[in-house]
Amino acid sequence: MRTTADRLRHTILFETIGLLTCVPLASWILGRGLVQIASLSIVLSITAMVLNYIFNLLFDKALVKLGRPINIRPIRLRVLHSVMFEVSLLFLTLPMVAWWLKMTLWDAFLTDISFALFFLVFAFAYNWTYDVVFPMPVAEGEA
After folding, report:
1. Where does residue 3 rank: exposed (0-12), middle (13-18), buried (19+ CB within 10 A)?
2. By residue range, what is the domain housing residue 122?
3. pLDDT above 70 (res 140)
């Protein structure tokens, strides 16, 4: 399993790179001010970081409980992991987006889905890259 320090590094790098990429793009697409989108994105980022830590810890524990090696992640498992996380995050953030941007829930849903799709692709690429750059520790006897 990953250490707490490694999980924090994973989360902070993910959110930092994600924000630097997403905020200018979202501001341009939505026609909203950079400060408004940046402040919303920071709130969403904090929400995502907390969820990310909890979700990934529970996901790894579920893999262990199922008897699966946590350092082997085939593509279908990576896709499942990314989709499950983004759906969980969507349920938490939809009311925030609607309120912050003064939108209907439907418009907020479409906006949130756009964020989710962006981060779904980003999360897939980021997590794969992270596992290559910072490999999962392997316990004695595992290969």
Report:
1. exposed
2. 4-133
3. no
Q: What is the pTM of this model?
A: 0.68
CB atoms within 10 A of CB 32: 16
Question: Does residue 141 fall inside a structural domain?
Answer: no
Lookup result for tokens 């924090």: 8
Q: What is the mean pLDDT of the chain?
A: 88
Q: How far is CA 34 from CA 5, 28, 38, 45, in A?
A: 32, 8, 6, 16
Give residue for tokens 């759906």: 87
- Count of CA atoms in the C-beta half-sphere (13 A) of 15: 19
In which band, very low, low, confident or very high, does the pLDDT at 45 lie, cut at 50, 70 and 90?
confident
The per-residue b/e assignment along 46-64, b for 16 or more CB within 10 angstroms, e otherwise, is eebbebbeebbeebbeebe
Residue 66 lies in a domain: yes
Count up the domains in the chain and report the number: 1
Nearest one of 80, 89, 69 to 11, comparing CA atoms: 89
- Kindly state the average pLDDT of the residues 56-81: 87
Could you give the count of Cα atoms lying within 13 Å of 56 in the half-sphere of its Cβ? Answer: 19
Residue 138 lies in a domain: no
